[in-house]
Amino acid sequence: MPYDFDLFVIGGGSGGVRCARMAAGHGAKVAVAEEGPWGGTCVNVGCVPKKLMVMASEYGNAVADSQGFGWNAQTGQHDWTTLIANKDAEISRLNGIYKRLMANCTTFEARARFIDPHTIEVAGKRVTAARIVIAVGGRPIDPDFTGAEHAIVSDDIFHMNALPPRITIFGGGFIGVEFAGIFAGLGRQVDLVYRADLPLRGFDEDLRTGLAEAMATQGIRLHPGRTIRTVSAAKQVTLDNGQTIETDLVFSALGRAPDTGDLGLDAAGVKTGAMGSIPVDETSATNQPHIYAIGDVTHRINLTPVAIAEGHTLADRLFGPGPRHWHLDVVAAAVFSSPPIGTVGLTEAEAAANGPTDIYLEKFTPMRHTLSKRPRKTTMKLIVDQATQKVVGAHMLGEDAPEIIQGISIAINAGATKADFDRTVGIHPTAAEEFVTMRTRARVSG
Ligand code: FAD
């Protein structure tokens, strides 16, 4: 029986758009359904608007820093409504670009769900497809403390009319620490409540410690090892140790879960795993060989470039000349905290579990802050497997860390050794040159 489409993609976010566009480019007859604005989480309520807010938050400190360099500039008032209006205009522009990328596909601006393994219901129609890609991403996990209805999640912050003076954030993951930096930079009083002893569970310990110190130095009030027990209608937060925090806004940042509810997966015979995620094999196939899942819905490495790589590879494999190879086992990542983090490869603890590991570590005051006098430190770290002398991890907390680590990640993916780093001539004066001038081993781990 002929199908209406060669490929139906559910979700027009980072992974879905790339997969649909590449498949159509290879000549496949493709349909895409998107229930919200085109571009998905990254463009609308994730990476892009978040980074614009990070940039907004940096200007106040930059003005204060400039005084050490002889400027007499004074920090003025920040206007949140201008930021939101300008951000909205930019996001609308990007939505248009994403929609135009779908020009060779049939698009449905509606929610889609499975009726059976080859049939999708969308916009009041039933359509069939030979192959189907699930690229529905994730959604914020709702908090379960008493008074959770008084809290917002990250999706909400991008559309708020005003930003109140006192904000309590619950969650020490990347979204929690990024918004702690944004709000503090915009002059708000920030309380950050998190369950672990340090923020950013899973990151290298030296970076976690360094970021906690940096946040405390900025005046962010840290509440490690704590959870929120209740939030009252008057926005009084009570922690599990009985401590109360007077606040104006409670921002819950407890992570995201795959958005697979009400997708008709049972009707399609697609199995789900932890938190509703969809398990896939190395070809992105689910337990149904003609149904695939890519991006955050698989809940593995929840990053835009990974969703894009998976979508691109899948389209090439199904309709093109064959899959392009990506290094998905060594993926660099950033946290746009204040200061930001760039990280690639193994942490010290992960590497040490594999055997003896040489640790190179530098912590220093970056040049800008020798004159600005802002108490801010940069931490840079190389993790070297002692047996092979390969650099298996590089981590940085400090200005421009994501930009620097992107370059370092190429060397690590190429299998560079510590000797390769050592024979590379640095660029002076930069912070990045520290990565090629660290000569003295700080310790051996493992
Ligand atoms: P998404 O981009 O979430 O797209 C899924 C789409 O499917 C959505 O548009 C949704 O509306 C649609 N959809 C869902 N169900 C249906 C249905 N039944 N029918 C039709 N449409 C449906 N990643 C980075 O790499 N760098 C960052 O700095 C970064 N910052 C982030 C900051 C925040 C606050 C958040 C929340 C995320 C951030 N991420 C970042 C993660 C990044 O946004 C995701 O990894 C990425 O968007 C995943 O792409 P995706 O295609 O899997 O899903």
Q: Given the structure, what is the number of helices?
A: 13
Structural class: alpha/beta
- Average per-residue pLDDT, rounded, comes to 97
Helix content: 25-40%
Largest sheet: 7 strands, mixed
Low-pLDDT residue intervals, each spanning 5 or more residues: none
Q: Looking at the structure, what is the overall shape? A: globular
What is the end-to-end distance? 60 Å
Number of strands: 23
Strand content: 15-25%
Radius of gyration equals 23 Å
What small molecules are bound in this structure? flavin-adenine dinucleotide
What keywords describe this structure?
446 residues; seven-stranded mixed sheet; binds flavin-adenine dinucleotide; alpha/beta; 23 strands
Task: Walk me through this protein's architecture.
With 446 residues, this protein is of the alpha/beta class. 31% of the residues lie in helices and 24% in strands. It contains 13 helices and 23 strands. It has helices spanning 14-25, 40-45, 47-66, 80-101, 154-157, 174-185, 205-217, 265-268, 304-319, 348-354, 367-372, 401-413, 418-422; strands spanning 5-10, 30-33, 106-108, 112-116, 119-122, 125-134, 138-140, 151-153, 166-170, 189-193, 221-223, 228-231, 236-239, 244-246, 249-252, 256-258, 291-293, 333-335, 341-345, 357-364, 378-385, 391-397, 443-445. Strands 1, 2, 3, 4, 5, 6 and 17 form a 7-stranded mixed sheet that branches. Strands 18-19-22-21-20-23 form a 6-stranded antiparallel sheet, sandwiched between helices. It has a 5-stranded parallel sheet with strand order 8-15-9-10-11. A hairpin with a 2-residue loop joins β4 (112-116) and β5. α1 (14-25) runs parallel beside α9 (304-319) and α3 crosses α6 (174-185). The protein is globular and about 70 Å long. The relative contact order is 0.13. The structure holds flavin-adenine dinucleotide (FAD). Flavin-adenine dinucleotide (FAD) is lined by residues 10-16, 33-36, 40-42, 45-47, 50, 111-113, 135-137, 154, 175, 256, 259, 263, 295-297, 302-305, 307. Flavin-adenine dinucleotide is lined by residues 10-16, 33-36, 40-42, 45-47, 50, 111-113, 135-137, 154, 175, 256, 259, 263, 295-297, 302-305, 307.
